[in-house]
Amino acid sequence: MSENSQEDRTQAPITGARDASDKRRWYVVHAYSGMEKSVRRALLERIDRMGMNDLFGEILVPTEEVVEVKGGQKSVTERRFFPGYILVEMEMTDETWHLVKNTPKITGFIGGKSNRPTPIPQHEIDKLLQQMQEGVDKPRPKTSYEVGELVRIKEGPFADFNGNVEEVNYEKSRLRVLVTIFGRSTPVELEFGQVEKV
Questions:
Q1: Could you tell me if 5 and 12 are in contact, meaning their C-beta atoms sit under 8 angstroms apart?
Q2: 120 - beta bridge partners?
Q3: What predicted TM-score, i.e. pTM, was given to this entire model?
Q4: Which residues of the chain have pLDDT under 70?
Q5: Beta bridge partners of 85
Q6: What are phi and psi for residue 100, nearest 5 degrees?
Q7: Do residues 63 and 83 touch, judged by C-beta distance below 8 A?
């Protein structure tokens, strides 16, 4: 099976009713930060090699798409909800526990006892899957601004001036900042990439 088809198989939300005899539950696994996707691939390979596919379900690295503006260019990037953690749907047995625990770059399970972790409730997973889908349908800006927040202008004629956010337009990735020039507040229209939080 190719890497892309494994990605598709495990990132897609579960559809249809689950068999009542299915003993798989969701667990949180701690992995080296920044290595979540490679840990996921390694875990999938180990599951396949050991012939334990029937004991495992999805393996997720929860991410959302965010819009970033750099140099006037919009780009969509991926941001992890929980850096350093992956979610594994599995039937908890001694064999599956050892397989996951002994995968390189995994430090262990989160919650419960070290040898018997506590599963995450299904409603929490459903909420997370919904958040992931919303991020794909409508990417959020990488940085969020609030009205009244103090920002510093990084570029343009008002570079190095500070100002208060007066209005935020996420659709256009722009905001209006009130900058004090010669004792008088002046509204300035700027792109998200032209300012930074103070």
A1: no
A2: 26
A3: 0.62
A4: 1-21, 69-73, 135-142
A5: 30
A6: -70, -50
A7: no
The residue behind tokens 């005899």 is 21
- Per-residue pLDDT, 72: 60
> For residue 179, what pLDDT is reported?
92
End-to-end CA distance of the chain: 48
Q: What is the 3-state secondary structure of the chain?
A: CCHHHHHHHHHCCCCCCCCCCCCCEEEEEEECCCCHHHHHHHHHHHHHHHCCHHHEEEEECCEEEEEEEECCEEEEEEEECCCCEEEEEECCCHHHHHHHHCCCCEEEECCCECCECCCECHHHHHHHHHHHHHHHHCCEECCCCCCCCEEEECCCCCCCCEEEEEEEECCCCEEEEEEEECCEEEEEEEEHHHEEEC
Q: Which two tokens stand for residue 190?
A: 């700027």
CA 192 to chain centre: 21
CA distance 164 to 40: 43
CA R_g for the chain: 22
Residues facing 31 on adjacent strands = 106
**Cα–Cα distance for residue pair 6/101, rounded to 1 Å:** 21
For 103-136, the pLDDT digits (tens) are: 999 999 998 887 789 999 999 988 888 888 876 6
Give the C-alpha separation, 106 to 29, whole Å.
Answer: 7
